[in-house]
Amino acid sequence: MPHQEQVMVHGNLCAPGPPNNAGYNSNPVPVIIQTESRDKWSKKMDFLLSVIGFAVDLGNVWRFPYICYQNGGGAFLIPYVLMAVFGGVPLFYMELALGQFHRTGAISIWKHICPIFKGIGFAICIIALYVSFYYNTIIAWALFYFYSSFSSTLPWTSCDNAWNTENCTNYFGKDNVTWTNYSRSPAEEFYTRNVLAVHESSGLGDVGYIRWQLMLCLFLIFTIVYFSLWKGVKTSGKVVWVTATLPYVVLLILMIRGATLPGAWKGVVFYLNPKWEKLKETSVWVDAAAQIFFSLGPGFGVLLALSSYNPFNNNCYRDAIVTSLVNCLTSFVSGFVIFTVLGYMAEQRNVNVEDVARDKGPSLLFITYPEAIANMVGSTFFAVIFFVMMITLGLDSTFGGLEAIITAVMDEYPDTLSHRRELFVLGLVVVCFLGSLSTLTNGGAYVVKLLEEFGVGSPIIAIVFLEATAVSWFYGINRFSNDIKSMLGYTPGLFWKVCWVAISPAFLAYIIISSLLNPQPLTLFDYEFPDWSITVGYIIGASSFMWIPIYMVYKLVWTPGSLKQRTLPDIHTDSMGLSPIP
């Protein structure tokens, strides 16, 4: 695309835009700089696989199946689909369109939308750092399991290992086994005592020492990440051909194997059996909204970054629909992979499925599923491919999260960093590795839980709420629609405009208010987080969000003109309706 000059905004805090379509011609010209020097995807599929790889992560495998059966089974699909159609997908589409039109990262994009909200970009980068501090540790756990799987007998099969206790109870292949409240399976003790070693920590007040085995695994993970990202989308776009497609091959193999296990049908019935009365509970709708939001991943800056390397006339609308459908269908299919195995375990224990489906979060992937695999024919093969799938699912999301930071910072400081990408990426990876060290301790699992709950949860939802509000109400929905028209040749329909202006922000506000009104106690492995740790959690959450009001105050003080001029958008435009009159 030919070079286009950048329009500079002077003396106003929001990019100009009239409240109606007056002043726009039928095919407005983009106002954001477009240079041939910016990286571009080598192929369209590189971009699509990168977006799918980011959106389809470990949460699709562990979070959706658990939330689905907990909230009414098949009945949960109704609120899930509604929240996706009216909330998740419109926000997903909005971010892809913003990134592709403005062709810049999460920080500098606000110069063109509404400069007073630029703090959102800094907040997004800080949250992405927090995610990298704990998410890659979970991948390191999977790598530890992957290494441990290369044995004729999987180490979490029996109770004869050095880390086992007298409470270890192995019920597979045995009759008349007594299972009590104190009983622990070999897989649970392998996870808690050999991988995490949480028994050597009394809690967050005494996390213990760094486990060198996990540190080595994390070092290998970050090494892969660095050499996948150091050259930009040219390299990461090639890596995702493996990391984004391999999980689907493994899911298919595991689903076929699970369907052939005795008792598998019990798990499927339990997974999908609709409990219509659940739809009357507010918590079910909140869980549906939160699940679709965190699954699609708007607000993390990743979609902005990845789409900014697209051609200007790329059909981002079609991309949004296709990748959203793939994401949601992956979550649904993952439920069959998980629950066929849970049905098998229930058959082996001679108990109901709900009695073996109590694990959630990482425990579902590191205790329940490995336990079932250990007692299958060909257990080593299935363990290896299962943990390969987990590693690749995690790596894709890490690629996206760190690319969001890289793109945002390099676009904000191009003169300093444009020719030093390799060094900047190396420095970022080192910072992420050092920031992860506390999660590698004996009590590291507690740190992971704290960061996941407070560093990402509510702050990212609040940030996306502000982002959607700024784009729809300050930048202007008509202006944004015309931006899309300049790329695609047609204006978004009324449905999308209504969602962006009202329904999607209401969807986000609903999640925020519900989480504030119904806070859940924070526990892990029977450890209840103390009050002081909750306070620390709120400080972690505030440390990212606070940059939004701080930058607003800075901008109000720094920008010349009257208070009205400094707080309201400048609606005076040139004949094209696109740039302010100096």
Automatic annotation (TrEMBL):
Main localisation: membrane
Pfam family, one: SNF
Lineage top rank: taxon: Eukaryota
GO MF, one example: serotonin binding
Record-level GO BP terms: amino acid transport
Residues that coordinate or bind Na(+): 53, 55-56, 60, 295, 327, 393, 396-397
Entry protein name: Transporter
GO cellular component, one term: neuron projection
Homology family: Belongs to the sodium:neurotransmitter symporter (SNF) (TC 2.A.22) family.
